[in-house]
Specification:
Layout (H helix, E strand, L loop, with lengths): L1 H22 L10 E6 L5 E6 L3 E6 L5 E6 L6 E4 L5 E5 L13 E5 L5 E5 L9 E6 L5 E7 L7 E5 L7 E5 L6 E6 L6 E5 L2 E6 L7 E5 L12 E3 L5 E5 L5 E5 L4 E5 L9 E4 L5 E6 L2 E6 L5 E6 L5 E3 L6 E4 L8 E6 L4 E5 L4 H11 L2 H12 L3 H9 L8 H16 L2
Antiparallel strand pairs: 1-2, 2-3, 3-4, 5-6, 6-7, 7-8, 9-10, 10-11, 11-12, 13-14, 14-15, 15-16, 17-18, 18-19, 19-20, 21-22, 22-23, 23-24, 25-26, 26-28, 27-28
Helix pairs in contact: 2-3, 2-5, 4-5
Length: about 400
């Protein structure tokens, strides 16, 4: 009896061990946590990037997976082309075995094919690659975040898939922390350890390179930047946990009072409104940039996030947020959440004016005036894509439903 029991236990244990052994290589979406996220400019797609370099493309109206792209190396940054047909990725030079593995890659978003590979040279220690696509689609900017090395900013041609280096900016920024194109594509903001640089005349062989300074500035060691929609205001963080709104022309800074000393490691401006989202200390905060007041805060497991191009939804990585935000969908086995942060009637009106035809605007404004949010959502559902683009319709419906369910 004891021998039979012993054999049975050995058999069960062997089965469990073998099953565990064969399950180890099988990596589901939930097991490989994404580390980056980005919304396509038209709002119809979303890309999430895993730690192993795999890119997942999603349809944001049906929430169905579209395509997987496997990069041969890890990915530190991702950027959509304005027409949504290309994705650029960049890799930290220190993460690759061979110099030929580093640098920028351009991917076709319809079939996942590699279109171009542009290696970058440099000496980056414990860094991360950066890449941003100009909103007019003509250029790419890249750099390497580095604690010790001196890596220039590179400007690349992106017209007709002819990716070639236009200019290397050696004079000015050295240890780059963040780069961002202005919405009008005329300026590139570069934040390094010494300050904020505004690069302009980027179509010429010698771009203008201006160190932006504010007299008696209170900002300490900023390293994250985000442009406002007017191409004149910039949001920056400070090492003491505060946020500031910079007026480039007036050379003025306005503080946003924060209740945390955690440094914001992610900043994203709502594309059509006055809301700014920041990620610090496992929390996502939403701020009113006019009043400087905090609109909302909620816990998030990880901090990378992105606004939809129409400003109604926020995609982020991590667990489901608290009830303070209305969740509309979760993707990638719960690793990606899409929410409606701080919904308001004024926000719904702004989105409507941004993307709906004049006749549709009039019809929906009538619904808003009567606060008929359910009827508003049903009207949008019945409209054609010529009246309201699909991704904009998804934003309008999500915000209307959030307002309808609000207490």
């Amino acid at each position: 009896m004891k021998r039979s029991l012993r054999l049975a236990l050995i058999t069960i244990l062997t089965f469990v061990l073998l099953r565990s052994f064969f399950l180890i290589p099988i990596q589901s979406y939930a097991q490989i946590a994404p580390k980056l996220i980005s919304w396509s400019p038209d709002g119809n797609k979303l890309v999430s990037v895993d730690a192993d370099g795999k890119l997942h493309l999603w349809d944001t109206t049906t929430f169905q997976p579209l395509l997987d792209i496997q990069s041969p190396v890890s990915v530190d940054a991702v950027a959509w082309s304005p027409d949504g047909t290309r994705i650029a990725t960049n890799t930290n030079i220190n993460d690759v075995t061979h110099i030929s593995d580093d640098g920028l890659r351009i991917w076709n978003t319809s079939n996942g094919q590699l279109i171009a590979h542009m290696p970058e040279e440099g000496d980056s220690e414990n860094g991360a690659g950066m890449v941003v696509w100009s909103p007019d689609g003509t250029k790419l900017a890249s750099a390497q975040f580095t604690g010790t090395g001196t890596i220039p900013v590179n400007i690349w041609n992106a017209v007709n898939d002819n990716y070639k280096l236009l200019v290397t900016v050696n004079d000015g920024p050295k240890q780059v922390r963040s780069i961002a194109w202005s919405p009008d594509s005329k300026q590139l903001a570069v934040q390094d350890y010494t300050g904020l640089y505004i690069l302009s005349d980027l179509s010429s062989g010698i771009p203008r390179n201006q160190l932006f300074t504010v007299p008696n500035s209170k900002i300490d060691s900023p390293f994250r930047i985000a442009w406002g929609s007017d191409s004149n205001t910039l949001a920056v963080n400070s090492i003491d946990g505060k946020l500031y709104i910079l007026d480039i022309k007036a050379k003025r800074e306005t503080p946003i009072t924060t209740n945390t000393k955690d440094v914001a490691i992610t900043l994203a401006w709502n594309p059509i409104g006055n809301q700014l989202a920041s990620g610090a200390g496992n929390y996502i905060y939403v701020w009113d940039t006019i009043s400087g007041k905090q609109l909302e805060s909620y816990p998030a497991k990880t901090l990378p996030f992105a606004w939809s191009p129409f400003g109604g939804r926020l995609a982020y990585l991590g667990d489901v947020l608290s009830s303070a935000a209305s969740r509309t969908q979760s993707l990638q086995s719960g690793a990606v959440q899409i929410v409606v942060p701080s919904p308001s009637t004024s926000e719904l009106q702004a989105i409507t004016q941004h993307c709906a035809t004049p006749i549709v605007q009039q019809q929906l404004t009538t619904r808003l005036a009567a606060k008929q949010f359910s009827n508003f959502a049903n009207d949008v559902k019945a409209m054609s894509k010529d009246q309201v683009p699909p991704a904009c319709a998804a934003d309008l419906i999500a915000v209307a439903n959030a307002l309808q369910s609000a207490p």
